[in-house]
Amino acid sequence: MSEMLEQDDEEVANNARHFMAHMNAQSYCCAKSLPGALGLTKLRINRRRCWILVAEVRFIQSRKSNPNMKGIVYELPAVKPITEEYIDNAGLSDKISVCGGNFFNSDAFPGPADYVLFSNILHDWPDKINLKLIEKAYNCLGPGGKIVISEMLLSDDVKSSTSSSTSMNIIMLPYTKGRQYRPKELFQRLKRAGFIDPHVTSLVDDYDLIIATKPLQSC
């Protein structure tokens, strides 16, 4: 699955269309609950926030929950037209744009942004890649900006993890290059990149958010 999305050809674009349809349906509740979990449901127009959404067309549902949010989806060039179809069909092309790119190379994320969202992204990839993604997020955020990671988290002691997160971990290990994380593992990687105050906030069902902040001033 993840190997297909690393390629950039017509066959992958067709596969990606089906994959995105499945992921969009699967994550509907998470996306709809995101503004509430972050305390952004009453965001005023003059406090509009810019999001960078890594491979994240699901922001459409979040945007519907608060019309004052705007975003940029960072997506593979081959998948960019499909993402734009979703956005156009939702009538949000004036609020959500798409930036084509490949997060495996040295291209920077667009910015400066107030938030960077990784939703079910980090569990696909090994630690070395994920640390680079976290660093890219740090670099594109403005001072005080936040990284938001949405995942089914294992418990720090593993044995008290939910059945859903344990099952997901079993699926990810043989079929992707990644795994499900424990909070303390992501906290360590976030602090290494320079983020402060990493913490866990409940999202919906068995999904949680890990949120961390870029300092107002560099140390």
The SSE string, one letter per element, is HHHEHEHEEHEHHEE
Radius of gyration: 16 Å
Shape call = globular
Which spans of ≥5 residues are poorly predicted at pLDDT below 50? Answer: none
Mean pLDDT: 82
Describe this structure in words.
The protein is of the alpha/beta class. The chain has 8 helices and 7 strands, in the order αααβαβαββαβααββ. The protein has helices at residues 2-6, 10-26, 28-37, 59-65, 80-89, 127-140, 163-175, 183-193, and strands at residues 49-54, 69-75, 96-100, 113-119, 141-151, 196-204, 207-213. Strands 3-2-1-4-5-7-6 form a 7-stranded mixed β-sheet, sandwiched between helices. Helix 3 packs across helix 4. The protein starts with a helix and ends in a 6-residue tail after the last strand. The model has no long low-confidence stretch (mean pLDDT 82).
Which structural traits does this protein have?
219 residues, alpha/beta, seven-stranded mixed beta sheet, 8 helices, 7 strands, 40% helix, globular
Question: How would you concisely characterize the structure shown here?
Answer:
This protein is an alpha/beta fold and 219 residues long. The chain contains 8 helices and 7 strands; from the N terminus they run αααβαβαββαβααββ. The chain has a 7-stranded mixed β-sheet, with helices on both faces.
